[in-house]
Amino acid sequence: MGGIQLCLAGASIGNGNRGVEALGRSVLDVIDVQAPGSRLSAFDDGWGVRVDTSGRYQGSEVEFVGVRLSRRWHRPESWAQIRVAQRLGGLGNPAARRIARSDAVLDISGGDSFTDLYGETRLRSVSAPKEAALRAGRPLVLLPQTYGPFNTVSGRRLAERLVRSAALAYARDPASYERLLELAGSSADPARLRSGVDVAFALEPRRPSHPIAELIEGLPGAPVAGVNISGLLRDAAAIERFGLVGDYVATMADVVRSLVDSGAHVVLVPHVHVPGGGGESDIAAISAVVERLPESARQRLTVVPSELDAAEMKWCIAQCDWFVGSRMHATIAALSTRVPACGYAYSDKTHGVFDTCGVGHHVVDARRVSGAEAVEAMVTSFATRDAVKHDLDIRVPEVVERARQQLTDILDDVRAWKKGLTLGAIA
Question: What DSSP letter does each residue of 153-190 carry, written as one string?
């Protein structure tokens, strides 16, 4: 098939967010198989250049390259330093050199971070590798992701410029595709604006060597209900930041209690790990929920260790009979392994992904309902899991294949560009 040189941005594999890791690993896994002999430079927020030592990639050379917004502007990882290096030819800076020599820069924006919803600094960070690719004159490929919302004029103008300057752009659900078309404008080449699916559908689950695997496999015959509790939503600041209604932790505690009362064994699955368990760590949120439960309920709980990687977490989720979560990629791990799932969502992105699998009606919006009403909706989803499982068995294999095929199509495009076929911006 022929090797190519690629940079992958917006999917930091080692940052503790298993959803973002799932995006990065999914892309690298497919490229490793479909384009052996390639050199893949995955940007992350680490320091320096580090060769992958996992042994996971047999056909390609994979390395991790540190990049970040930093006040240490003199550091080679700083986007300010990378920008200066590009103006001087770029060869003295590791990231600038790899961008300049790449056949394309693939950018996925963490799946859902190409927005000003999380603030100006986050948008600047997400936009930096896109800007760097364009400065170097390299093809920018926007991998399947969510676009927006953009609540500021400056944020929307930036997004419009970057989308129109890209060589190829994918959205990961129909709603995002409509927003992508709006950003690209009427003069855009429609052949290079494509509707896709979240690449994490392609991630292969891997049984962990950790004792948790035997523990989950040895659970009693009761239905296994997986529950993800998001550390992003556990404190009062989330109410203002995302417009939540009610007490998120109290609602999730009531969900767990109701599932146990229904006869289920509950497996609690953290999907974001922060060292020490602080900040947005899901383990902190899980602990807050467990503290609210009676001892009788705690005896029917199993907590998955937060240090498992994305593929191992996906294996654990795949062992469940039903799953509910607020981290969208935790629910994707369920849906992609045909586990009936419910999303307790804080943004519209979850609806789009669930609609992809035909189960959009199993999304409960935390901005509209909480407490008893939300618990009832989630428990109803649990009760109808057998019917949903039948539907997923039919629909999901096609979605998983689309996740892989869209990456193969992108590689075909990159090879064509490498051969000198005419390439310009989308608009």
Answer: HHHHHHHHHHHHH-SEEEESSHHHHHHHHHHH-TTS-G
**Contact between residue 289 and residue 260 where contact means Cβ atoms under 8 Å apart:** no
pLDDT of 1 strictly over 60: no
Domains detected in the chain:
5-203+400-418 (3.40.50.2000), 212-395 (3.40.50.2000)
DSSP 228-286: ---GGGSSTHHHHHH---S-HHHHHHHHHHHHHHTTPEEEE---B--GGG-TT-HHHHH
| Contact predicate 331/353, CB 8 Å | yes
Closest CA to 345 of 360, 361, 365: 365
Non-local CB neighbours of 3 within 8 Å, separated by 6+ positions: 35, 36, 37, 38, 39, 60
For residues 37 and 3, the answer to whether their CB atoms sit within 8 Å is yes
C-alpha distance from residue 199 to each of 37, 221, 250, 401, 415 (Å): 22, 33, 33, 10, 20
pTM to 2 decimals? 0.92
Pure H helices in 66-165: 79-87, 94-101, 120-135, 153-165
Q: Average pLDDT for residues 271-290, to the nearest whole number? A: 87
Contact at 8 Å (CB) between 113 and 79? no
Amino acid at residue number 169 = A
Radius of gyration of the chain (CA): 21
Strand partners, 345: 365
Residue 296 binned pLDDT confidence (cut-offs 50, 70, 90): very high
On the 0-12 / 13-18 / 19+ scale of CB atoms within 10 A, 89 is exposed
Distance CA 298, CA 410 (A): 47
Higher pLDDT, 55 or 302: 302
Q: Give the separation between CA 130 and CA 117, rounded to whole angstroms.
A: 18
Mean pLDDT for 300-319 is 96
CB 198 within 8 A of CB 172: yes
